[in-house]
Amino acid sequence: MLETELAKISQTLQETxxxxxxxxxxxAHCNYACSMCHHPxxxxxxxxxxxxxxxxxxxxxxxxxxxxWADHDARPAASDVRFQLRMxxxxxxxxxxxxRETIARILSDFRRRGLIQIEGTSxxxxxxxxxxxxxx
Length: 136
Prior knowledge:
Elements: H1 2-17, H2 20-28, H3 30-37, H4 43-54, H5 58-73, E1 75-76, E2 81-84, H6 89-96, H7 100-112, E3 117-119, E4 122-125, H8 128-132
Antiparallel strand pairs: 1-2, 2-4, 3-4
Helix pairs in contact: 1-2, 1-3, 4-5, 6-7
């Protein structure tokens, strides 16, 4: 399964993000990447890259990133998930390949639709399932 996911990532990179030479180099090192993904310290970064690279829209990429942070950085709350946002909109944009303005617009849309709540730097996901629907 891991090899299939890496093949998809490689294909996506070849088609959309990087020059062909880089994509060929990435593909050439797929076996090394597979072995690194099995290392306990590399599982989280691998899943972050896979989720971002395979998402088709900025909205899906941001939803995936918020869910990833919720999985690893959240403090338990009554029935929801809460975590601190430790990056600026610009830094998040760089991470998912979007502009600061796009990130701000998507976060505002998520808030308006009740997918997240924002209080200062605190993000709350009241219903994880609704946010997960954006990934498909």
